[in-house]
Amino acid sequence: MPRTSRKKSETGIYHLLLRGINKQTIFEEDLDKKRFLQALKEYKAKSGYNLYAYCLMANHVHLLVKEGPEELGVAMRRIGASYVYWYNVKYDRVGHLFQDRYRSEPVEDDRYFLAVLRYIHQNPVKAGVVPEVKAYPWSSYHEYVSKPDLVDTEFVLSLFGKNRKQALSDFQRFHTEDETASCLDVEERRRISDTEAANIIKSVCNIPHCSDLQKLDRQSRSDYIKILRKKGLSTRQISRLTGLCRNVIVKA
Residue 32 phi/psi, 5° resolution? Predict the structure, then answer.
């Protein structure tokens, strides 16, 4: 079936979702997240987009951006290609890492803009990774409350008032309230978080990275998959974290 065209934002602002192919993990460790942020910064300068929020999760990324002189789709392809090349060299792998097409939704007014911003920053809390927004190190929340580096903070803070000190206080209080808006997100809900599952995989299989399960011989791999299933990891979750095909896991 032909792809449907993206909804065009009248403001030029979009909420983007990039995810791993087959829901695979795209960040094995902190260095991977740092490299992705480096790519965001590099192509932000080249493409001219504004970045208002980001959150890096184990197998997906949320971005709140305003399109610049270069088409946003081109910028996202540049970022993806740069990161995937580096990732594949590091982990001695080949092929795609991201789904071939990122998902997006237009953000047309200030009210929904702030809803998406909070939704992105609260993503790790709702996923059960951390108890509160400020405890998660891989979102743009910290650039607002400390020193901005990658994110364009001035526009967001201006929506909370002209007095910067009061605006920052209101911004922080705003993030303690639950966001109920239905925003763009991944669809699955897991009993075991990806962080917990990744640690289980590494421990059970005695491997440094989840994707290393692909490199084991078939019998060993099958034995480990059986153990992982008994420990409560779903077929979909094992596939997402290790990059193994679902059929391989089912046959095991």
Answer: -65, -40
Contact present, 76 and 18 (Cβ < 8 Å)? yes
- On whether the pTM is more than 0.90, the answer is no
Q: How far apart are the first and last CA of the chain?
A: 33
Tokens of 199: 């640690």
For residue 2, what are the CA distances in angstroms to 7, 8, 72?
15, 18, 21
What's the Cα-to-Cα distance from 148 to each of 52, 124, 166, 168, rounded to whole Å? 11, 20, 18, 13
- Residue 210 gets which letter from DSSP? G
The type of residue at 108 is: E
Calpha distance 210→190 (Å, rounded): 18
The whole-angstrom distance between residue 176's C-alpha and the CA centroid of its chain comes to: 21
Residue 103: other Cβ atoms inside 10 A: 16
Name the residue among 6, 13, 137 with its Cα closest to residue 63: 13
Structure tokens at 12: 């030029």
Q: State pLDDT tens for residues 14-65.
A: 999 998 887 788 998 999 999 999 999 999 999 999 999 999 999 999 999 9
Backbone region of residue 128 per phi and psi (left: phi > 0; alpha: psi in -120 to 50; beta: other values): left
Cβ burial 12-39 (10 Å sphere, 16+ → b, else e): ebbbbbbbbebbbbbbbeeebbebbbeb
Angle between helices 194-205 and 218-230 (to 10 degrees): 130
pLDDT in tens, 129-182: 888 999 999 999 999 999 899 999 999 999 999 998 999 999 999 999 887 777
